[in-house]
């Protein structure tokens, strides 16, 4: 059994966890809001201190910095086939965090094949936006995300999805990113012909 320093617990406040039964919470991840970058391309990614209120200890508020000429790449994933999971694992008193991201690249295209071939053993940081616009971090400089599985399929019938189901895992907490990151760009919004 782990021995806990009573001084570190005395500094903590028991905060209320409120919920509104009428609050609409969008479910799922945005199929246009997935990003990735090799850890080697990053210059700074500051993880929050574990002091403060419950929200501040999980929010990254300083912009992520990449080395010159480097930025996050965007992944266009198949709608409704993407999921983010944040769990804890380990023995009592020694629990640790784990985060996994599963996404689907549509088609056995050469670019999708190349993504898997090139990135299968490279440590990365991923960012996944949920449908409410929140940005979630998978991996960090000390605990990067690695590709765990990548299963490509042609599908058997017209109802099957051909492509790659990919899962990446990190032994780190799923922090909320409240700051900018290099490569974050909104998708262009089409305008009507002749419009301003």
Could you list some keywords that capture this structure?
single chain; 2 helices; 6-stranded mixed sheet; 196 residues; 4-stranded antiparallel sheet; mainly beta
SSE topology sketch:
Elements (H helix, E strand, L loop, with lengths): L5 H5 L18 E10 L3 E3 L14 E2 L4 E2 L6 E3 L7 E7 L6 E11 L3 H10 L4 E7 L4 E4 L7 E8 L9 E8 L5 E2 L19
Parallel strand pairs: 3-12
Antiparallel strand pairs: 1-5, 1-8, 2-4, 6-7, 7-11, 8-9, 9-12, 10-11
How would you explain this protein's 3D organization?
The protein has 196 residues and is mostly beta strands. It has one domain. It is built from two helices and twelve strands; from the N terminus they run αβββββββαβββββ. The strands form three sheets. It has a six-stranded mixed β-sheet with strand order 3-12-9-8-1-5, with no helix packed on it. A hairpin with a 4-residue loop joins strand 8 and strand 9. The longest helix has 10 residues. It is globular. The model has no long low-confidence stretch (mean pLDDT 90).
């Amino acid at each position: 059994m782990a021995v806990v320093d009573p001084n570190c617990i005395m500094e903590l406040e028991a905060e209320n966890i409120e919920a509104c039964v009428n609050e609409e919470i969008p479910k799922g991840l945005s199929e246009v809001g997935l990003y990735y970058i090799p850890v080697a391309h990053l210059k700074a990614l500051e993880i929050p201190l574990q002091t403060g209120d419950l929200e501040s200890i999980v929010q990254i508020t300083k912009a992520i910095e990449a080395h010159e000429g480097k930025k996050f790449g965007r992944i266009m994933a198949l709608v409704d086939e993407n999921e983010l999971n944040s769990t804890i694992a380990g023995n009592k008193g020694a629990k640790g965090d784990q985060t996994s991201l599963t996404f689907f690249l549509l088609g056995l295209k050469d670019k999708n094949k190349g993504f898997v071939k090139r990135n299968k053993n490279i440590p990365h940081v991923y960012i996944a936006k949920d449908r409410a616009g929140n940005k979630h971090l998978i991996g960090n400089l000390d605990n990067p995300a690695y590709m765990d599985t990548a299963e490509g399929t042609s599908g058997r019938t017209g109802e099957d999805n051909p492509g790659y189901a990919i899962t990446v895992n990190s032994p780190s907490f799923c922090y909320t990113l409240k700051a900018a990151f290099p490569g974050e760009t909104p998708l262009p919004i089409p305008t009507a012909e002749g419009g301003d």
